[in-house]
Amino acid sequence: MAVLKSIVSRTQGIGASRRLEVITYVGAGAWLLATIAATLLLTRYVNLGGYGTIIFPALGIAAGAVGATVLSTLAELYGQHARDIRAAAIFEALRRGEKPPPYSLYLRPFASTNVIGKTVGVGLQSERIELEAQIERATRPIGRLIALGAPLEHIGAGRILAGEQEWRGAIDLLLKHAQLIVMLPSSRAGTLQEIALILGSDLITRTVMIDPPNIDVPRKHYDHATEWAKVQAAFSQASFRLPDENRAGTLIFFGDRREPLLKEHLDIDAEDRIERLFRRITRFRGAARAARG
What we know:
Distance between the termini: 52 Å
Strand content: 5-15%
Order of helices and strands: HHHEEEHEEHEHEHEEH
Number of strands: 9
CATH class of the largest domain: Alpha Beta
CATH topology of the largest domain: Rossmann fold
CATH architecture of the largest domain: 3-Layer(aba) Sandwich
Helix content: 40-55%
Structural class: alpha/beta
Number of domains: 2
């Protein structure tokens, strides 16, 4: 993976990254089809004899699968590189005092990166679906999803690199102009500061809280059940009622209330359901603005 990231990071510009993403995806499909076709032809016209009739096809299929996986991963990284470049451009526009294109902000504890997901399918047909990647796709109609972090660290939100001394100011600036805030709350000190800021302002009217699925996540990496109980206490201190943790996962929106206005069961592999809730929140905010003025 480090080698692939090194290759991708050398690409300059969003356009070049997007073109290479498409080319590499096409290459992955072409490689898989070519290896299957070659394997079938050779096994049909070449007398392999003995165990060769079993071993050679297996090796051919394995080579096709490995090659296609590597190329698909490379394509995903090119797509992420384009999102990282776009996120950095949005942040630079904000720092210059310019109006950026619409964007959504993803706030999460760094410990949750790459650990909240779901595996669907079996064997060669299995696929790992990451929560962050699903959120990124669901927010596209609203605006690009961006987050603090290292470029290419994960597939999902475009990353903005900020140092230890810069992250607080960066978050404040990003919160101010975000169309939608998607937050995975935790009891980390930095996240509790963000929660206090959101609950103490009208930022809560454009914030979705995520109670992520807590079924397939190894507790040694991220014990969300323990985290959630501490987060509930922080909400209670601010006079907000946060629902109990749901192991299956929930999307929560307070709007202008002290208890949830909307709650939606969170299926990681149901991107359309996540997008529908985000659209409902956008309509709610539009109606609220119209009522005020």
